[in-house]
């Protein structure tokens, strides 16, 4: 159904609302207002519409009685909402005119907005793309997350080292797009004990008596459907104290005790992923996960029953999607409520729960599969630990029946991992307790079946599915790259915004000289925009005619930013020492955060920054080679970087990256991928063709074979002079004058540290692939054709398609138009 929002837009009424909010909310007169105040007033005025549509969608009988999905994720990296919402509402041009009459430039106002600090990397951005597509496709949905006060952290660099500071993302007057929902608040318990009692029917029952209770306050952010009237909530829970403030203790001078419960409750939603390198951090992190799940499950049940539905019909009308293992504790929480509060039998409760939950796996790294100590779980959530043991007892019975006498199978599939400290395996709990498990790329799913969960795949045939990830074309092409969007629409119309597969129509223009020129002019303009940003914010001059080689993603060894660094070092060495060596000017662009407790990742950032400092100021190099590490990576920066990328670095060790979505975004915007046969790179290669991508390195089977026979990084170090020379540059004081060895942590990890992600094994092939890129870029006509084909052939990687796959193959949802 076409949206009527645009047709109803009344400029005079909108401008009156803006003036009203300037005065009543911001205590500012129009003639005194600055850009910050104008932006806030504009957002408050626009939010009137989205909030009304949110409530209208919520109360629509068609929605109440439809099957819906509840998307549970600890991260939703939603980015700035204003520009994206204006596009979805069809009001971008109208509001541009309306604000211009106030003397305000909409583009400048949009730059004032700070990204909500509600996520970190690909996991959270995927969740945000999925919510956008659920609303665009009109599948009834609620997203559930946490209302972080500071998010992960705001990143800066001090002498090249990462510095972490609180990310204060909300304005003093609040965040205009969110609305508090106190009527939806939930109570959540922790600690305490479990007691057995006899009910009125003489039956033995169990119940949990928490030792601490807090309140979960609901905040709704509107997820606005593109060109329709559906607005679904992203419901975020903020933790607040239930215990009243103690005036008596305060008057006695015991100020800490007076507000102890408030301090403890406030910590739960203070930051995303509290550092768990210590026991208190682990406890806080598990409390955070349970708080998220308890509030969300309670709200799902509230909605279900408020609509007049029986608890016995929960699985018929609700699906709960667990985005990774962080929300796993929702499974025993639902079972606890069904068993202890609704007094269902185990079989009846299990029949409901096991048909309600589905789980998305995001990692092939065994060490990244979440586990929790039994002692901590028992202390914090004693009833849930009992239920987990019950689930495991029944699971072990199924395993023993399938493989009689096979102790190894019991050990591997058990939810409880034996050892010095018994631990709860959250991924095993998910696979055993859900009706569907999915990987996020074709190769990833096959590896999940073959290597990660082969026994589960045999025990539960048909439970493991694939849903290849995607990105929303509204934000990652139409909004972030308006010049390219306009060029595309001038050739094929605007249908691609909702049906990205229509980009295939661009293929017929790939050899068109004029279209190639227009396409590359757009790329040049986007590169100039990034060049200007770098000059203004970092004081660094870069050449927009150079190859912009981009690696933007979470800093982790398996993503191999240090392989990229070694290549940069090899170029630097050759430029200085080989008079015959020539290369196209290139700017290497990094943006990434390292987890505060991940010391080696932080050392890699430090090494890249110190190498950049020397190279960027070496007069012998000039503009031929530059290295830029952009601090505080976030969605709004990605929206500037991605349209400017010529080369997309997707260089993870084969078999380690589940999917990736940055690879999709950059290819969609006309960047050429240099990558391993890993994650979604495999499918991108299938779509764009071998001639339009630069594949290098060991494949999954070769990686496993090399590791099986015993990988020795010194074999590569000793046999490759360029590699040895490049790596040794990190050992001295070339980049840290007077302080030799300051960068040795990165070098040590690749040699004495064993190089766990085979950086040295892939180095030579990577250098060759980069050489092919350099040569190809010299032929701009050929490069333009390849770039056009990357945009034209990436329509598969729309999150709209991903969501349709989920809806049809996992959730069994039908779209509901309003």
TrEMBL record:
Alphabetical UniProt keywords: Carbohydrate metabolism, Glycogen metabolism, Glycosyltransferase, Pyridoxal phosphate, Transferase
One Gene Ontology cellular component annotation held by this UniProt entry: cytoplasm
Cofactor: pyridoxal 5'-phosphate
Superkingdom classification of source: Bacteria
List of residues that carry N6-(pyridoxal phosphate)lysine: 665
Gene3D superfamilies linked: Glycogen Phosphorylase B (3.40.50.2000)
EC numbers for this chain: 2.4.1.1
Protein's UniProt keywords contain Transferase: yes
A GO molecular function held by the record: glycogen phosphorylase activity
Catalysed reactions listed for this entry: [(1->4)-alpha-D-glucosyl](n) + phosphate = [(1->4)-alpha-D-glucosyl](n-1) + alpha-D-glucose 1-phosphate
PROSITE patterns: PHOSPHORYLASE
GO annotation terms (biological process): glycogen catabolic process
Job description of the protein: Phosphorylase is an important allosteric enzyme in carbohydrate metabolism. Enzymes from different sources differ in their regulatory mechanisms and in their natural substrates. However, all known phosphorylases share catalytic and structural properties. Allosteric enzyme that catalyzes the rate-limiting step in glycogen catabolism, the phosphorolytic cleavage of glycogen to produce glucose-1-phosphate, and plays a central role in maintaining cellular and organismal glucose homeostasis.
Identification of the protein by name: Alpha-1,4 glucan phosphorylase
Species of the source: Moritella yayanosii
């Amino acid at each position: 159904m076409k949206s009527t929002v645009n047709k109803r837009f009344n400029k005079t009424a909108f401008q009156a609302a803006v003036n009203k909010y300037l005065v009543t909310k911001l205590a500012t007169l129009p003639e005194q207002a600055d850009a910050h105040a104008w932006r806030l007033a504009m957002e408050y005025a626009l939010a009137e519409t989205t909030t009304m549509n949110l409530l209208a969608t919520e109360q629509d009988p068609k929605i109440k009685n439809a099957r819906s999905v509840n998307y549970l994720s600890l991260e939703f990296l939603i980015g700035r909402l204003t520009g994206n919402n204006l596009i979805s509402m069809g009001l971008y041009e109208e509001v541009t005119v309306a604000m211009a009459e106030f003397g305000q430039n909409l583009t400048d106002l949009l730059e004032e907005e700070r990204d909500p600090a509600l996520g970190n990397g690909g996991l959270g951005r995927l969740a945000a793309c999925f919510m956008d597509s659920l609303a665009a496709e009109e599948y009834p949905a609620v997203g559930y997350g946490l209302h972080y006060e500071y998010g992960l952290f705001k990143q800066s660099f001090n002498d090249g080292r990462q510095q972490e500071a609180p990310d204060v993302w909300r304005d003093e007057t609040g965040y205009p797009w969110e609305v508090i929902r106190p009527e939806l608040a939930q109570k959540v318990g922790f600690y305490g004990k479990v007691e057995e009692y006899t009910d009125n029917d003489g039956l033995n029952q169990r119940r949990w008596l928490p030792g601490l209770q807090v309140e979960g306050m609901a905040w709704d952010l509107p997820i606005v459907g593109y060109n329709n009237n559906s607005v679904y909530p992203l419901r975020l829970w903020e933790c607040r104290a239930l215990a009243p403030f103690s005036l008596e203790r305060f008057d006695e001078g015991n100020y800490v005790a007076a507000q102890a419960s408030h301090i403890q409750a406030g910590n739960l939603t203070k930051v995303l992923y509290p550092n768990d390198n210590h026991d208190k951090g682990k406890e806080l992190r598990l409390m955070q996960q349970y708080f998220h799940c308890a509030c969300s499950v309670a709200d799902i049940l509230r909605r279900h029953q408020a609509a007049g539905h029986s608890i016995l019909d929960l699985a018929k009308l609700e699906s709960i999607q667990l985005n990774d293992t962080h929300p796993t504790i929702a499974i025993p929480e639902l079972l606890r409520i069904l068993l202890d509060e609704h007094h269902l039998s185990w079989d009846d409760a299990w029949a409901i729960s096991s048909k309600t939950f589905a789980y998305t796996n995001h990692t092939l790294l065994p060490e990244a599969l979440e586990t929790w100590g039994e002692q901590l779980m028992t202390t914090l959530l004693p009833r849930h630990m009992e239920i987990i043991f019950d689930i495991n007892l029944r699971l072990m019975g199924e395993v023993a029946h399938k493989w009689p006498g096979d102790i190894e199978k019991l050990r591997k599939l058990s939810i409880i991992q034996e050892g010095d400290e018994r631990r709860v395996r959250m991924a095993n709990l998910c696979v055993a307790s859900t009706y569907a498990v999915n990987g996020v790329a074709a190769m990833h799913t096959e590896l999940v079946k073959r290597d990660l969960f082969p026994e589960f795949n045999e025990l539960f045939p048909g439970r493991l599915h694939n849903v290849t990830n995607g990105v929303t074309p509204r934000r990652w092409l139409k909004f972030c790259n308006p010049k390219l969007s306009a060029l595309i629409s001038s050739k094929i119309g605007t249908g691609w915004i909702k049906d990205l597969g229509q980009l295939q129509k661009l293929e017929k223009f790939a050899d068109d000289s004029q279209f190639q020129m227009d396409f590359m002019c757009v790329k040049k303009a986007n590169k100039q925009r990034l060049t200007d940003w770098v000059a203004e914010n970092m004081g660094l001059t870069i050449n927009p005619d150079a190859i912009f080689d981009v690696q933007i993603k979470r800093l982790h060894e398996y993503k191999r930013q240090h392989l990229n660094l070694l290549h940069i070092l090899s170029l630097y060495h050759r430029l200085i020492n080989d008079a015959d060596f020539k290369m196209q000017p290139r700017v290497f662009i990094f943006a990434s955060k390292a987890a505060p407790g991940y010391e080696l990742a932080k050392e890699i950032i430090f090494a890249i920054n110190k190498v950049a400092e020397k190279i960027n100021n070496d007069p012998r190099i000039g503009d031929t080679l530059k290295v830029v590490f952009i601090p505080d990576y976030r969605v709004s920066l990605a929206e500037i970087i991605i349209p400017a990328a010529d080369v997309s670095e997707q260089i993870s060790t084969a078999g380690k990256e589940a999917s990736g979505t940055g690879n999709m975004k950059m290819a969609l915007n006309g960047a050429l991928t240099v990558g391993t046969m890993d994650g979604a790179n495999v499918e991108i290669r299938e779509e764009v063709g071998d001639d339009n991508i630069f594949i290098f390195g060991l494949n999954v089977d070769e990686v496993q074979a090399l590791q099986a026979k015993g990988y020795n990084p010194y074999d590569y170090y000793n046999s490759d002079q360029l590699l040895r020379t490049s790596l040794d540059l990190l050992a001295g004081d070339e980049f840290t004058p007077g302080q030799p060895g300051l960068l040795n942590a990165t070098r040590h990890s690749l040699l004495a540290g064993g190089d766990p992600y085979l950086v040295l094994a892939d180095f030579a092939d990577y250098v060759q692939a980069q050489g092919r890129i350099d040569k190809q870029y010299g032929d701009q006509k050929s490069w333009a054709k390849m770039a056009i084909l990357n945009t034209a052939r990436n329509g598969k990687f729309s999150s709209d398609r991903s969501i349709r796959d989920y809806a049809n193959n996992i959730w069994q949802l039908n779209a509901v138009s309003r």
